[in-house]
Every structure is written in structure tokens, then in C-alpha cells.
Known about the structure:
Elements (H helix, E strand, L loop, with lengths): L8 E3 L5 E3 L3 E2 L5 H14 L3 E3 L7 H11 L7 E6 L6 H15 L4 E6 L12 H12 L3 E7 L3 H11 L5 E5 L7 H10 L2 E5 L11 H10 L3 H11 L3 E2 L6 H8 L8 H8 L22
Parallel strand pairs: 3-4, 4-5, 5-6, 6-7, 7-8, 8-9, 9-10
Antiparallel strand pairs: 1-2
Helix pairs in contact: 1-2, 1-9, 2-3, 3-4, 7-8
Amino acid sequence: xxxxxxxxxxxxxxxxxxxxxxxxxxxxxxxxxxxxxxxxxxxxxxxxxxxxxxxxxxxxxxxxxxxxxxxxxxxxxxxxxxxxxxxxxxxxxxxxxxxxxxxxxxxxxxxxxxxxxxxxxxxxxxxxxxxxxxxxxxxxxxxxxxxxxxxxxxxxxxxxxxxxxxxxxxxxxxxxxxxxxxxxxxxxxxxxxxxxxxxxxxxxxxxxxxxxxxxxxxxxxxxxxxxxxxxxxxxxxxxxxxxxxxxxxxxxxxxxxxxxxxxxxxxxxxxxxxxxxxxxxxxxx
Length: 285
């Protein structure tokens, strides 16, 4: 089998497509964001994932402007801040996001967290506002992040509109199969955040043995595992060497045994590195 060296795209249920590998800017300090994103562009990334909550949309926008890459070659995602779920707040903040990014549209806009214990448990109204924003042309696609199967069922049952993407935590220690299966059932693409367990896989003997055999790093092996499972990933780094390394995923492949061995590392809920979406309720304005 010939392995491609270019980034494949994943078709979405709304007729668009998304690059399967992107670059994330979670926890990248504002003052480092433009430089870091410019280095990602130099490495070959064309899919950038940011969020209102990250506080660095303007710096992502500055990097986009400085790079001079044709807009049609870029895929830009941002996400709704937890404090902006009310319809007027969502509309206002979305306009602000476009202004900060220096764009007239984004490719994908996500509800960052469902917040089932906030807003009287009403994330359906927020989803209806997302639908409105897509219909207004400000975003090509809309989706959700950190939505559990019951959350997905609810917004789809009540609106008839299926998210294009669900961005959820997935890593070898928390494979999150119930959420991935719900995404598959609805035809929703899964994006995996914290794909290398916030670096936790670095010393894993199973992943390390595979990495040694294929001549790659543990991070590359883990990211390749995600890609071969069909998920979208967007690793983050602020170091040029690691940025380049994380992009070099398309000239090798893992065997079925490798894939199974990594999947067997799953620890269930104890493998989660971030908050549980059923209880997470932080609002940062």
C-alpha cells in the first residue's frame, strides 16, 4: 500500500470537507501565537483550530494576514465561549471573532462545551443560534465540542440539524468509544483533542516499542493511530522542530496489531485528562 504524504480531507455531512490534520493553539500565549502559527504554516499546516476562550484569535488572524496564503487554501475553526451561550451574546461574540480573525467567514464554528448544568440546561437554543449563523453565511459549517451522546441526541431531535463535527477528548488512555460511536451513528466527524494525553504517552512502553520499530517518535505513532482510526487531530506545539515532526505523519503506517495494542491502553474514565462534559460548568468572560 502506498501511503500519502499529503494531508487527506474528511468529508462532512453538510457537503464540505475538513483537513484531517490541523494545528491547535490551546494554551499558546497571546504574545507567542502569531509566531507559532506562522511556523505551522511554514511546516505545511493549513487547518488552524482556535477558540474565543483561548484569547488568541486576533493573533491567529495576524498570522493569517502575514502568511498571504489564499483563503481557499485555509481551514479556520473557532469556538463559542461558555459565557456567550445566550442568543444575543452568541451573535455578538461571533461577529467579534470574525473581526479578530480578520475574516468574513470561518470554516467551522463550534459550541465549545454543552454546559448542561448552566443556562437552565438549555443548550438547544444555543444550537439554534449556531444554525442561524450558518444560514447567515458567517460560517460554512457548524458543530459542537465535548457533547456526550445524550447531548447530541437532544439537539438533533429538537432541531433536526446534525452537527458536522464533534470535538471531544480522545487519547490512547481515554478512547471515548461511546462518544465516537454516537458521532458515527449520526454521521458526525470526530475531532480528537488532547490526542497525546498532554504528553502522557511519552514514556509508554507499548507505544515506545512501536515507535522504535517504525523509526518514529511516540507522539508521531499516537497521532498516526488517530488518523488511521478516521479521527481529525490538531496537535499543538510552540517549538519548530516538534511542529514539523507532528506534520510528518503521512509516509508511514501502523499495522492492525499496532492499532489494537494502542487501543488496548484505554483506561476508561480514569484516562481522561480534561473535565467531564456532564459536570463542567466554568464560565470565563
